Amino acid sequence: MGRHYLPNLAHRDEMLKEIGFTSIEDLFSDVPKGMVQKFNLPKGKSEYEVFRELNEVLGQNRTALEMPSFLGAGTYFHYVPAHVKYLIERSEFLTAYTPYQPEVSQGMLQALFEYQSMIAELVGLPIVNSSMYDWGTAMAEAALMSARVTRRKKFVIPKALSPEKKAVLRTYTAGPGMEITEVPWDERGQVDMEKLKEAADGAAGVYVEVPNFFGLIEENLREIGEIAHEAGALFVVGADPTILGVVEAPGELGADIVVGEAAYFGNPMNFGGPRAGIFAVRNDKKLIRQMPGRIIGMSRDADGRRAFVMTLQTREQHIRRAKATSNICSNEALVAVAAAIHLATLGPRGLSELGEVILKNTAYLKKRLSEVAEVPFDGVNFKDVLVRFERPYSEVHEMLLARNIHGGHYIGEHFPELGEGALFAATETTRKEWVDALIEALKEVA
């Protein structure tokens, strides 16, 4: 009798048929060939033999330290202090679920309260929820929230926006029937201000990012906010929090809502996830009541002792489904706690130093890349740098991989007007010798 390694194996064909596939290969057809590893573990193998076989497969992977990576566009190699992982693996955090009973969840509630407090100071807005799934879903929730508050159906975004975020946004807004309007970039890669004025008319919200998808720091952020407000729209800013030690907080520039990615602190790349989305608003009851997720607050118990509670919980688990703002669950809470620990470790000075190092490394990468390819946009870059090549970038990328260098993220598929464009990224972990090796390799292949 054959052994079933997965409890649902007997129902595999039935499950595949239900979702419209005929085989496991069809199910994973979007994964590049050669990337799917099959395991045939016959009856009789010992646990050690299975461990050894799996370890040999895992040994084919190379880390960002073994293979210098310039792949950015939303996922970046940041250093995470060792104590962060140690602390979040404590059972008090690791096994904690949604704190329905505050009397037995004070530790987790306080940790989330501290996360909210630090993010509030970072983004310049006083009200922060205890995290979303990721940046993309936070942006999409901001669009829905803008529509609820303004009773309008249009949301304006820059054309220079991550294709993944656009896909999430369109998925979230399809049901409510929202209109998504894209504003092109100008000759410097910034939001086209004249086109923005036209698009903002009748909008529920206007969204912009710092830095933008091309890695450029938007130079007209305050003016963009003024255009949004003059049109009666909410001003929504998506911010990479690692830049906020060296630029003005979005809340100080007029943002009504700030979203972003908290997982850049305290969490490894981990194949792209998990994440924790930032969501903050100004102190306005109309905005606070429409916020998705949960807000943790500090209060006093019956004996006058400090106590932490869920102050706002507009999820369908807690209130009538028709009144719920969002069904955001709890899997990102541990990621948010890790971010809080890392932020507390850095402090204001450390955060500024982090941003300065990333700016310096990005500037060096951009300067060197301009020696071997076209860098179409000037301005100040943070992490990502857009580069255009004369030959197909897929060829360039494969040749770099053959030289043990992971190149940039190809964006020509989604932005054909940019030609064979790719985003190359640097962070505080990027070493000068890695950049120099990249440039020498590009001289040979580009």
From TrEMBL:
Gene Ontology molecular function terms on file: glycine dehydrogenase (decarboxylating) activity
Recorded catalytic activity of this chain's protein: N(6)-[(R)-lipoyl]-L-lysyl-[glycine-cleavage complex H protein] + glycine + H(+) = N(6)-[(R)-S(8)-aminomethyldihydrolipoyl]-L-lysyl-[glycine-cleavage complex H protein] + CO2
Any Pfam family: GDC-P
Keyword Oxidoreductase: yes
Glycine cleavage system P-protein N-terminal domain boundaries: 3-442
Stored CDD domains: GDC-P
Domain of life per record: Archaea
Top-level class of the enzyme under EC nomenclature: oxidoreductase
InterPro entries assigned: GcvPA, GDC-P_N, GDC_P, PyrdxlP-dep_Trfase, PyrdxlP-dep_Trfase_major, PyrdxlP-dep_Trfase_small
Function per UniProt: The glycine cleavage system catalyzes the degradation of glycine. The P protein binds the alpha-amino group of glycine through its pyridoxal phosphate cofactor; CO(2) is released and the remaining methylamine moiety is then transferred to the lipoamide cofactor of the H protein.
HAMAP family: GcvPA
Subunit structure: The glycine cleavage system is composed of four proteins: P, T, L and H. In this organism, the P 'protein' is a heterodimer of two subunits.
Name the record gives this protein: Probable glycine dehydrogenase (decarboxylating) subunit 1
Organism: Thermococcus aciditolerans
Chain's gene name: gcvPA
